[in-house]
Structures are given as structure tokens and as C-alpha cells.
Specification:
- The strands form three sheets. This protein has a seven-stranded mixed β-sheet with strand order 6-5-4-1-2-3-12, sandwiched between helices. A three-stranded antiparallel β-sheet has the order 7-8-9.
- The protein folds into two domains: about 270 residues, Rossmann fold (3-Layer(aba) Sandwich), CATH 3.40.50; about 90 residues, formyl-coa transferase, domain 3 (2-Layer Sandwich), CATH 3.30.1540.
- α6 packs across α7.
- By secondary structure, it is α/β, with parallel strands linked by helices.
């Protein structure tokens, strides 16, 4: 937690991954992020996996450091309260449809400098989610073993909803860009960010779109090899599988020394008439010969010895872990300053929690904050933001328009 955004308040009306991620990143940098949900919880409130008490671990981690307001968003009065909160606060993150009660026009009425960031499906209004835009992007049909037939082999979906997280990060950036513009001009902004465009745009930014058009066809599957460079998984004599990558001359030279294949590489270079130290192209074009050579060398080492040699040679490598192993790895988690002590999580389950991914040398980050209980800050926010009296809030509670904390 850093306080770079201290003094900034954001209303977040969202669910699932992308939109809550945008709010999370703002909160971890010190913004006051007020998440407003339907009083029974948003669509992601009970998202799998649940603890035995019924608390979603996904929701808990995507909503750290935020405040929670719970309203009856199916009622006119509850919707009016959310619109008024947005209008009073002046900046909003949401993935609710534009053609809803939370349209930019409704929120900005009488507040011309309001900034709204809205995450959509596709630019033309079609619905989308991470796993469907990933199918459209072409990436799943690039994944899989190298000997799979392009025409008949199945797609390989990624487990991580990467487009959601990229969209969330881009949305946080877009919000701050719009706020900077408002500071300079006094103008508000309506920013729409289609999830599908983030996926297809990222594919284009990587050069893959141009590559497909230039080659006039699809790229072949590469298994676990890195496209356009030297890198793949190998296995040691004692069965440890690991990944190496060599994109620079230093990384390449280090791998050659660590694996002890200097003479074999020199012989292969002489046979092929190339110099592998010259760059990615010769290493990638002759990757199969190199993979066989390095795998044969790896089988002559146990992992402990080869890892020490790779570390001493300054190579880039990492052992494959299961996610459970990663979660229990001291270097990745326990001794990593990214993680702080467990706050008082609504789930009651104690585990390491992340601080901001960024770190600022010379500045001490605060400890991770807990996620709120649903409705925990309803009364506080309505009083402070809308100026309601305690009696008015009590009436809204009695009417079923406002819900207080679901802690008990």
C-alpha cells in the first residue's frame, strides 16, 4: 500500500475480474475506492472457490482495501442513491451496460466534469468474457504439442483470465489519464474499454497481427518452445523439469557454460555454418538440434547441481512448480516483500496478502488491507458522501433499500 493517490475517491460498480481489478490497483495506491453492490451481493460475490463458511476467496482478494456499500439496485431509490454517489464523487469505474440506469449521461447530469470508465464486451455492444475473446484471438490454436495437426487438433485454453487482468490494469491507467486531462482542462470524460479490443489490440501490439498478414497463414504450434528465440523446458536426470530462456548473448553464453556443451556447440556451428551467439535467428531456426543437444546434457545432471551451475553462469531459468508448491515457496511468497501479514479477512482464513506490485525504494509500503464485508461502509458513505442523517439512513435500512454489514 502506497499513498500516491491519497485524496482520490472512486465509485466502483462492478463484478467478476476486470472491473474489480481496476479498483483494486487504485486502492493499493492509496485511493478511496467505494464498491457499490446489490444488497444480496454482486454477480461475483459467491464466485468459486468458497470457504466452508461460504466466503469467496476470489472476491476477498479482488476487493482488498475497498469500502463496501450495499443497496437494493433493483429498486428506483437504490439506483438513485448509486447515481448520486457517482455524481457527488466525480469518478466511476463500472462494467454495468451503458444502456442502464448507470449511463454516463445519467451520472454526469449537473456534473460535466465527471469521469467514467466503463468496461464492455466488444466495441459493437456484443457480450464477451475473457475466455470467449481468447477464443477469438487465435492464441488457443497456437498452443499445444508441436506435432499436433493444425487442422484437426483441439484448442488449448489458458487457465489464467489474462485479458481480464490486462483490461483491469488498462482501465486503471485510463482513469488516471482522464483525471489528468480534467485537471488540465476541467473537462470530464466518458471512457469505454471493450475487453475484446484489449485482446485483439494486444495481439496487434505484439506484432502477431502483422505477422499473420505478412506470412499469409497461421504460425505453427511450438509446444513449450519460445517463439522466435531459444527457450524450452528440459528435464534433469532426477526428473526435475525446468524452463530456460536465452534472448541475449549473455544468457546464451551462460547456458552453454552451465550445461557444459561448449565443444558440442562449436561442432554444431561448424556443421551448420552458423554462429549461435549472433542472435535469436540462428538459435530459433536450428532449435530442434539445439533442444536435443541441451536435453542430452541435462540428463547428465541432477537438478541441484545443474541449478547451481546455471545460477553461477547468470542464466535465466526457473523450475516448474505446481501452484500449490508456488503458494508454499519461501522465495516466491514468505520471503517476498510483495506479501504482507494476513489482515482480518472476512473469510476468517489467514494467509499472505499482496501489497502493491510496484515498490518504491526508500518508502515503506503499508501492510495489506482486508477486503470489506458486504455493506460494511453503507452508513458511513451515505452520511459522508450524500449528507444523509442517521435517521434518513435508518429509514432506508428499514425500507430494505440499504444493507449494513453481512459480518454476522
Amino acid at each position: 500500500m502506497y499513498n500516491l493517490l491519497q485524496g482520490l475517491s472512486v465509485i466502483e460498480a462492478s463484478s467478476f475480474v476486470a472491473s474489480p481489478t481496476a479498483g483494486l490497483y487504485c486502492a493499493q495506491m492509496g485511493a478511496e475506492v467505494i464498491r457499490v453492490d446489490h444488497m444480496a451481493g454482486g454477480l461475483d460475490y459467491d464466485r468459486y472457490m468458497l470457504t466452508s463458511e461460504g466466503r469467496s476467496l476470489s472476491w476477498e482478494n479482488l476487493n482488498r482495501a475497498k469500502k463496501s456499500v450495499a443497496l437494493d439496485l433493483r429498486s428506483g431509490e437504490g439506483r438513485e442513491l448509486l447515481v448520486e454517489l457517482a455524481r457527488k464523487t466525480g469518478q466511476v469505474i463500472t462494467n454495468l451496460p451503458e444502456k442502464s440506469f448507470l449511463s454516463h449521461a445519467a451520472m454526469s447530469e449537473g456534473r460535466g466534469d465527471l469521469v467514467s470508465v466503463r468496461i464492455m464486451g466488444w466495441h459493437d455492444g456484443r457480450q464477451a468474457m475473457d475466455f470467449t475473446v481468447n477464443a477469438a484471438s487465435g492464441y488457443p490454436l497456437m498452443c499445444g504439442p508441436e506435432d499436433w495437426d493444425m487442422a484437426t487438433a483441439p484448442p488449448v485454453n489458458q487457465v489464467l483470465p489474462a485479458w481480464d487482468f490486462i483490461t483491469g490494469a488498462y482501465s486503471a491507467f485510463a482513469l488516471l489519464a482522464a483525471l489528468r486531462h480534467r485537471d488540465a482542462t476541467g473537462e470530464g470524460s466518458e471512457v469505454r474499454i471493450p475487453l475484446g479490443d484489449v485482446a485483439i489490440g494486444t495481439m496487434a501490439n505484439s506484432g502477431a497481427l502483422a505477422e499473420m498478414l505478412y506470412r499469409g497463414g497461421d504460425r505453427e504450434r511450438l509446444g513449450n518452445a519460445i517463439w522466435g528465440a531459444f527457450g524450452r523446458d528440459f528435464k534433469t536426470r532426477d526428473g526435475v523439469r525446468f524452463m530456460v530462456a536465452a534472448l541475449t548473448a549473455k544468457q546464451w553464453d551462460g547456458l552453454v557454460v552451465a550445461f557444459g556443451v561448449e565443444s558440442e556447440i562449436a561442432q554444431l556451428e561448424s556443421e551448420l555454418g552458423v554462429r549461435f551467439a549472433d542472435g535469436d535467428t540462428p538459435r530459433f531456426e536450428h532449435r530442434h538440434r539445439l533442444f536435443d543437444l541441451f536435453q542430452a546434457a541435462a540428463e547428465g545432471f541432477d537438478w541441484a547441481k545443474l541449478e547451481k551451475r546455471m545460477a553461477n553462469a547468470g542464466t535465466t531459468y526457473e523450475r516448474y512448480r505446481t501452484m500449490h508448491e508456488a503458494a508454499n515457496d519461501p522465495q516466491l511468497v514468505r520471503d517476498n516483500p510483495l506479501f504482507g501479514p494476513s489482515p482480518a479477512n472476512p473469510s476468517g482464513f489467514e494467509y499472505p496478502a499482496t501489497r502493491s506490485f510496484a515498490n518504491m525504494p526508500g518508502t515503506t509500503p503499508g501492510d495489506p488491507a482486508p477486503a470489506p464485508y458486504l455493506g460494511q461502509h453503507s452508513e458511513e458513505v451515505l452520511v459522508e458522501r450524500l449528507g444523509l442523517s442517521s435517521g434518513q439512513v435508518a429509514r432506508l435500512i428499514d425500507a430494505g433499500t440499504v444493507r449494513l454489514s453481512d459480518k454476522d
